Amino acid sequence: MSVGRGRSGSPENPLTTPAASTIPLSPRGTSRTFFGEPIGLAYLAFTEAWERFSYYGMTALLELYMSEALFLPGHIEHVAGFATVRHALESISGPMSTLGLASQIFGLYTGFVYFTPVLGGLAADRFLGRKRAVVLGAILMSGGHVAMAFDASFLLALLLLIVGCGLLKGNISTQVGALYAENDGAGRTRGFSIFSVGINVGAVAGPLVCGLLAQRYGWHAGFGLAGVLMLIGLVTYLAGYHTLVEPVPTSALPMSDAAREPTDWGTIGALVAVMGLTIFHSIAYYQNSNIALVWINAHVDLDLLGFHVPVAWFNSIDPFISVISVPVLIVLWKWQARGRGEPGEIAKIATGAWIACTANVILFIGCTISDRVNVIYPIAYDVLLGVAFLYYWPTLLALVSSAAPKRIKATMMGTVFLTLFLSNILIGWIGGFYERMTPAQFWAMHAGIAATGGALALLLNKPLGRRLVGSGK
Question: Residue 290's domain spans which residues?
């Protein structure tokens, strides 16, 4: 994956039939740029920043909110439909403690948030179009965040967020790749790296602001702010609506046109395999938003110079490191390209997994040294996770955007988020073992999970890489 300066061209146009030619696919105002990139990237990046601000602000509060407030007597009785949900979960897993139940629901929520993008991609490819899908998703997510401000509508809030995220996530990512010409791999990589900055700026600010607000004014104040931020994201997207690419949904084309491009099952299979490799990394990484916060709250000294650091703030460290590391890694990859060669996409994914492994080893070491862990250990853990993120997630998005068959790009981009669905379901399940293990054992297990992903990526690097070279053209 090249990171050098490339020439930004017109957006890809897979439709060459007369029926398609009547619908403009190029964004208007392409003479304007955003740091040399298509101006539409600015609106997409800022929309994603606000959306991630709201999402991560809410998620940083969710596990602690459930285990320390909502699922306790006096609150849990007010949650509409909760008794039915609890009965269904315990019929599968057996009776669960408050923490175990909170971890299961956290895993199910964060998992399904990343399951529905594949359905959102299908809907956009076939019926809605990507732009309308993003708008509808933002509206639903705004409603979900507002509903989180009330105990009774807790489950409804999670449902709205899950459906809304399904329509927004994959489709907004697909629009980033569509801003660049087919052969502009370097430009596409730059675009996704800049887009990831928007993700991580929001992920830094969300836990900081929502966490502080929740600590000072109560849980629902933090959740209410997340809803306002999602509305700002919607306004941002609508402001840049005219600058974005919109291919024709396949249902609007004659059957012969929609079916003209043959399905490249070999490429699809290789992409799915690469996606599968990232699941190990995602488990080791995203546990920092679940049990890591519980562990920090119980075992880390949070008093610093007379100030009690909100636990949610730790979820701002790794995205902040991701933001400031982007230019450093771009310089590093350019230097590697001039020398022995820049690592390919799958090699970068493997590197990210090994960095995530090291992060979890640090927590293992901290737990073996003391029961009251110095704050430097979780800080170092999150710093390494921030670097690991850049090696695997933008790389995966850029690879799918360039290699996926053109007529199912939104669907394939939605499928990328299916890996996070599986990862988060497993994160919630694995979190249930925390009370049955020592903290040192728990973090050693996560280090092993990440190492497994790194080893598999190195083993499959060459065969998968050969299959994906030149795909998607």
Answer: 30-241+263-468
- Per-residue pLDDT, 116: 87
pTM of the shown model: 0.69
DSSP collapsed to 3 states, the chain: CCCCCCCCCCCCCCCCCHHHHCCCCCCCCCCCEECCEECHHHHHHHHHHHHHHHHHHHHHHHHHHHHHHHCCCCCHHHCCCHHHHHHHHHHHHCCCCHHHHHHHHHHHHHHHHCCHHHHHHHHHHHHHCHHHHHHHHHHHHHHHHHHCCCCCCHHHHHHHHHHHHHHHHHHHHHHHHCCCCCCCHHHHHHHHHHHHHHHHHHHHHHHHHHHHHHHHHCHHHHHHHHHHHHHHHHHHHHHCHHHCCCCCCHHHCCHHHHCCCCCCHHHHHHHHHHHHHHHHHHHHHHHHHCHHHHHHHHHECCEECCEECCHHHHHHHHHHHHHHHHHHHHHHHHHHHHCCCCCCHHHHHHHHHHHHHHHHHHHHHHHHHCCCECCHHHHHHHHHHHHHHHHHHHHHHHHHHHHCCHHHHHHHHHHHHHHHHHHHHHHHHHHCCHHHCCHHHHHHHHHHHHHHHHHHHHHHHHHHHHHHCCCCC
Whether 24 maps to a domain, the answer reads no
Domain count for the chain, please give it: 1
Q: Say which CATH number the domain at 204 has.
A: 1.20.1250.20
**pLDDT reported for residue 32:** 66
Tell whether 25 is covered by a domain. Answer: no
Q: Does residue 10 form part of some domain?
A: no
**Residues 333-343: pLDDT tens digits?**
888 878 777 78
Q: Is 3 a domain residue?
A: no
